[in-house]
Amino acid sequence: MTRFRSALAPLAIALLGFTAVPQPASALAAACAPTVSSAVTDARLTSLFTNYGNDNSRLDDWTGADGTYSLKLPSGRELWVFSDTFLGRVNPDGTRPPVVEEGGTTVFLNNSFAVERNGRLSTIHDGTEAKPTAVMPPRDDKHWYWAGDATLAGGTVEVTYQEYERFGTGTWDWKWHRNVVARFAPGRLERPISVHDLPSGHGVAWASATLKDGGYTYVYGVEDLGSPKYMHVARVAGQSLLGRWEYLKADGTWSANEADSARMMSGVANEYSVSKVGSGYVLITHDTSEALNPNIVAYSSCSPAGPFTGKQHVYTTPETSGNIFTYNAHAHPDVSGNGLVVSYNVNSFVNTDHYSDVTIYRPRFLDVTFR
Question: Which residues form the signal peptide (predicted)?
Answer without folding.
Answer: 1-29
